[in-house]
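Dear support,

Our group has been running a series of protein-ligand predictions, and this particular one with calcium ion is the one our PI (initials K.S.) wants archived with full inputs and outputs. We had some confusion internally about which version of the output was final, so please treat the block below as the authoritative record. The input we submitted was:
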Amino acid sequence: MTTKKTSFESLRLNLGATAMGAFMLAGAGIASRAQAAAVNITATNAFIVGQISDQFDASSSTSGVLGALGFGMTEASYTAAVSTEAGVATPSDAYDGCHVLSIAGTAYKDPDGIVDYTGTTLTTDPATLSGLNVQRQFYFHPTALANDTYALRMVDSFTNPTAAPISVTATYDCNLGSDSNTAIHASSSGNTAVENADTWFVSYQTIPSDVVNSFGRFQTGAAVTPLLDVAHTPATGNDDFVDGYPITVPAGKTVRIMRLAGFNHRLAKSATDAPIFGSLASLATNGLMVGVSLAQQKEIVNYNPPAPVGAPSNLDATKAGAETVFVRDLPLK
Ligand SMILES: [Ca+2]
Ligand SMILES: [Ca+2]
Ligand SMILES: [Ca+2]
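Confirmed final output from the archive:
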């Protein structure tokens, strides 16, 4: 007997360039290996299909963004009719390629074009970019959030194998499917402009019915916060979304960046769920931190680390009374 995982539990998907066309995982285990330029992932409870590719090139889409071939999500669509702003329809065309990661102009690609797809989680192999070992993990949450958002959580790791710190900007590149009809429905700052301070925003296509998109960028107060590329910031008529995270990875250490993407069929519902993307605590409360260990969570630099277990709720000595309580609790020797 072998304890090797069956294809039902763990798949190795080939994202190789020798394309024979995309295939669909119409249920876990039906296909275990395939030659395909793009791989369809039946994500999120079989209600959203996402397409993953190692060959995404933003410059070939409606609006050229960075033009680097890389691993990313080319598309996401509903698989069944739902209520939309334009009546009952099957929303599609979330992206024209999205979530491509690059450093110094070189996009991340899986080194052998084969990735792990286990249950809800797709994990790539490490590749070296600017001296860092970079690895990507996409988690497709299997159930919808309270207001119907299907969520994709991406955690990218950057490990420094050298004896000196390495500072880079990790750039994320997205081309929205909404094209010249892009509009912003909501953002965390309360307006309809995507700004650096926005931890999340909701974008859509003014001519329905594309998928309503939401994105989580960071948590306010985190060690690293992203900077939008001014020319490629989603806005009315602008379907580009380029975000840069300036990170420094200490020698021998790992730093992680977490980003969220949501898919919905209604604007208001998307905006009601999107604040969940604004903090690690709310992500955890909603089941979206599953599979990320506490140690790994502490390495996520664009979200605040989880509170230590059992820590007193108030050790802020600047607050009246806090110091007194703290001192009283110290053991006396
Ligand atoms: Ca569209
Ligand atoms: Ca587009
Ligand atoms: Ca805003």
